[in-house]
Amino acid sequence: MSFPWAKQYTPKHPFMVWMDEKLPLPRLVYSAVGGGYEVPRNINYFWNFGFLAGFCLVIQIVTGVILAMHYGGNTQVAFDSTEHIMRDVNYGWMLRYGHANGASAFFVIVYLHIFRGFYFGSYKAPREMIWLLGVVIFLLMMATAFMGYVLPWGQMSYWGAQVITGLFSAIPMVGEPIREWLLGGFAPDNAALNRFFSLHFLLPFVILGVVILHIWALHIPGSSNPTGVEVKSESDTLPFYPYFIAKDGWTIGLFLIIYSLFVFFMPNALGHPDNYIPANPLQTPAHIVPEWYFWPFYAILRSFTQDWLFIIPAKLMGVLAMFSAILVWFFLPWLDKSPVRSGNYRPLYRKFFWVLVLDVLVLGYCGGMPAEQPYVLVAQIASIYYFLHFLVIVPIVSSIERPEPLPYSITEAVLGSDKAAAPGDKA
Amino acid sequence: MIRIFSILAGLFFAGALAWSLLWDTIGFAQEGLPKTVEKAFYEHPKELHLASDGWFGKFDKKQVKRGFEVYQQVCASCHSLKHVSFRDLAALEYSEAEIKELAAAATVNAPDPLTGEMKDRPGLPADHFPPVVYAGQGHPPDLSLLAKARHDGAAYTYSLLTGYQAQPAELLKQFPDAKTPEGLHYNPYFPNLNLAMPAPLTSDGQVTYSDGTNATIDQMAKDVSAFLVWTAEPKLDKRHQVGFWWLGFLIYATILGYLAYRNVWAGKKH
C-alpha cells in the first residue's frame, strides 16, 4: 500500500544505494514500519495492541528457545528438567516464569486486540483478509499454548492433554482412531509429550509467518481508525516513524511494568498449583481446568450436558460449539452488513458489543469454576447469548440500525467539527 | 443468503443449549446446590505470615534453618526432598564442612566410577536428597514443591500440621456415611477431610532446635512451613531483588519514553 503522499526510501550512502539495487530490504522496512508508512493520525491507544502482540511473540520465542536448551522432552525427565531450570540454570527461574506469564500476557494483549476489532469494525471491507489471518493466528496461538502447558508434565499438563485430545474422540466413527493417532497411544505418554514438544517449537515460527502475512495484508488498505472513515488526504495521516514508533514505544515500557510485576512478584498467580505435582495417570485431579485464557471456550464446551433431543451426543455438540465459537469469527465480515465500521457511530451495535464483553467475562469465570451448579446454568445462558450475538444479533442489527452521522474525514474529526472523534480518543 | 444460514446456525446452537439448560434447570430445581461433606466442613487455611511473603519478602534464614531441623528430625522419615541438593543448604548459612557432613550421613545409590555398577556410597554436597524408602501403604509425596503445589501452600502446611482433631459430632449428624475410615485421620484443612498421615507433630519439644528456640507444636509447624517455601522456591530472594531494580529501571525508561513521545507529537493534533 502506499498513499500518494507517502515518502519513498532514498538511500544516501553508496553502499545503501548498491544494496537497494540488489536487495531492497531497507526499502521494504522503510515502507512497512518506517517513515514510508502513513497511519491515520487519530488512532487511539487501542491500536497499540498489535505492536505489543508482536512484542509478546518475540519474548516468547527468545525465552522459549533458551528454555528448550535445558528442557528434556521425555516423560522420565520432563518434570525434573523443569525444576532443574528453576534451580540450577542461571536465571532459569526468570526464563521460565517469563515464558509462562508471557503466554498469559500475549493472550491478554491479543484479546484486547480482537475486541478492538469487534468494536471498531476492523474486520470489514477492505480489511477482511487481515481479520481472517488474525483468526488463524489466534487458533495457532491456542494450539501452541495448549501444547506448551503439557511440557512440564505436571498433573494439569497430563490431564489437560487427556481432556483436549479426548475432544477428538467425540467425532462419530473415526474419533477414537484419530485421538490415538494424535497421541501416538491410548493415553498421553512419551510419544505425545515428545511430539507436543516438537510442535510447540515449530508453531511459533508458523505464527511469525502468518503475522508477516497479517501485516502485509494490513499495508494494502492501511490501518483503520476510530472513526472508521477511510483516509482521504495527506492531512489525515502521519508517518509511522517517528510518530507511531514513539507512541507504541513508550507503551512497551508500560506493558513491561505490568508483565514484570507478575514475573517477579506473583509468578504463579495465573497458574494452577496442581501443575507442581508430577503427572500421575492413576490419580485424576479434583477439578481439571485449563489456563485462564481458555476458560470462556471451556465453559461453552461444558455447557452441553444433555444429548440434544436425546439424539446428538452432548459431547459432540460441546466440541462442535467450542470450535464454532471461534470459527464464527471467520464469517464476521460478511455477517455484519453495516457500512459504518466504528461502534462510535452505531448506537445499537455498541450496546450489544458491551453485552458481549460482559458475556465473555461471565463465560470465563464459569469456565474456571468446577462443573457444578450454579456455574453450569449461568454458563449455558451466557453461551446462548454468545452464539446469538454473532450469528443472529449482529446480522439483524446491521440491517435495522440507523447509524449516527459520520465526520466527513479524519481531519475534520480531529481538527474541525465540535463533535469529538471518539469517546476513548484523546483529541 | 449467508445471513439466513447464520441465523439458522445460531438457532441450532441456541436450541441445543436451551435443551441442556431446560433439563439442568429441572435437575437444579429438584436437587438444589450440590451438598457434600467436603463443602460443608472443609476449612480454608489459617492466616500465616512469613518473612518471605509480599513483594519485598526475604527468607528469615534462622527460621528456615529451624524448619530444616524439623524436616530432618520428623518429616524425613517418610518424605523425600528430591529437588533439593545438599549444597543448596549453603543458603541457610551452613558451612561447607557442615554440608559435607550432612551429605555424608545420607546414603546415595549411584554408579561406581570404577565398575559402572550401581552402588551405595556416602552422599556428596552435589547430590540431591536421596529417595525415602517407605515400606507402608501408599507413597508419601515428595515435599520439595509442596508449598507451590497447594493453594496458599505455606498456610496450608501450617494449618494441616496443627489442624488434626476428632471428627465433629455435627458432621456425623449431617452426613452419617462420612465417618473417617479406619487408618485415616480427620483434618478439616485437607481437601477431602481424611488423610493417611497421622499427626506428625504431637508434643512440644519433639524437635531439638540448634538455636535453642522453644519447640512448641505451633513453632515447629510454622518453621517447617517456612522451610518448605524455601525448598519450593529457593531463588525467591534473588527474584524479589532483581525484580525491584528491574522495575525501577523500567519506570525510569517508561517516563523517558513517554516524554520522548510527547516531544515527537508536540503540536500535532490527533
Would you write up a description of this structure?
The complex is a heterodimer of chains A (427) and B (270). Chain A has 427 residues and is mainly α. Chain A has one domain (41-415): Cytochrome Bc1 Complex, Chain C (Up-down Bundle). Helix content of chain A is 62%, strand content 1%. A two-stranded antiparallel ribbon of chain A has the order 1-2. In chain A, 46% of the residues are buried. Mean pLDDT of chain A is 93; it is low at 418-427. Chain B has a domain at 38-84 and 134-234: Cytochrome c-like domain (Cytochrome Bc1 Complex, Chain D, domain 2, Orthogonal Bundle). Chain B is 46% helix and 5% strand. Chain B contains nine helices and four strands, in the order ααααββαααββαα. Chain B has helices spanning 2-31, 37-41, 61-73, 96-105, 146-149, 153-162, 169-174, 217-232, 236-265; strands at 107-111, 118-122, 185-186, 194-195. The longest helix of chain B is centred in the N-terminal third of the chain and has 30 residues, at 2-31. The interface between A and B is large, with 69 and 60 residues.
Taken from the alpha-carbon principal axes, the silhouette of chain B is extended
What does the average pLDDT of chain A come to? Answer: 93
Distance from first to last alpha carbon of chain B: 41 Å
Work out the helicity level of chain B. Answer: 40-55%
SSE string of chain A, helices as H and strands as E: HHEHHHHHHHEHHHHHH
The description of the largest β-sheet of chain B is: 2 strands, antiparallel
Helix amount of chain A: 55-70%
Q: Identify the CATH class of the domain at 38-84 and 134-234 in chain B.
A: Mainly Alpha
Mean pLDDT of chain B comes to 93
Measured distance between first and last alpha carbons of chain A: 27 Å
- Spans of at least 5 consecutive residues with low confidence of chain A: 418-427
What number of structural domains do the residues of chain A give?
A: 1
Please report the total strand number of chain A as a whole number: 2
CATH superfamily of chain A: Cytochrome Bc1 Complex, Chain C
The CATH architecture of the domain at 38-84 and 134-234 in chain B: Orthogonal Bundle
Catalogue the unreliable spans of chain B: none
What name is given to the CATH topology of the domain at 38-84 and 134-234 in chain B? Cytochrome Bc1 Complex, Chain D, domain 2
Cofactor (chain A): heme; heme b
Pfam families (chain A): Cytochrom_B_C (PF00032), Cytochrome_B (PF00033)
GO molecular function, one term (chain A): quinol-cytochrome-c reductase activity
Membrane topology (chain A): Multi-pass membrane protein
